[in-house]
Specification:
By secondary structure, this protein is an alpha+beta fold. The chain is about 25% helix and about 45% strand. It has a single domain (about 5-135), classed as Nucleoside Triphosphate Pyrophosphohydrolase (Alpha-Beta Complex).
């Protein structure tokens, strides 16, 4: 990995549905890109990746989260630069979403619906990894 790689981190934020107890995943809508994705963002200089992931979740969704399983790291080009995004599963503890300039909407969706709503196919692998992490509990 070279110094020009953009370092970022995020979480697949989940909760138990208040209706049926099934797993739900939180997706964020970013108006700048008009996309649906998992909460994530660039790390600050010297920031621990997990701390950064939890900070981004709080900033983008308004929720405090309890980190869990390590999920696959995604690597891809963003604006012509290599980007590496480390992910964790994280359970939503408490919070309240307030729309902001970066994220104007969030959705809590069952896994299958979340998978199909995600804009980037690579993000679907993270939902699959979350599902597998629950199968092994």
């Amino acid at each position: 990995m070279n110094d020009s790689t953009v370092q970022a981190a995020g979480c697949v934020l989940w909760r138990r549905s208040p209706v049926d107890g099934g797993l739900e995943v939180c997706l964020v809508h970013r108006p700048k890109y008009d996309d649906w994705s998992h909460p994530k963002g660039k790390l600050k200089r010297g920031e621990d990746p997990l701390a950064g992931a939890l900070r981004e979740v709080a900033e983008e969704t308004g929720y405090a989260a309890e980190p869990g399983a390590v999920l696959p790291t995604l690597r891809y080009l963003a604006n012509g630069r290599p980007k590496q995004v480390r992910y964790w599963a994280a359970e939503a503890l408490s919070g309240h979403f307030t729309p902001n300039t970066e994220v104007d909407r969030i959705l809590w969706l069952p896994l299958t619906a979340a998978r199909s709503r995600l804009t980037q196919p690579r993000d679907r692998n993270l939902v699959d990894a979350l599902t597998r992490s629950f199968e092994h509990r």
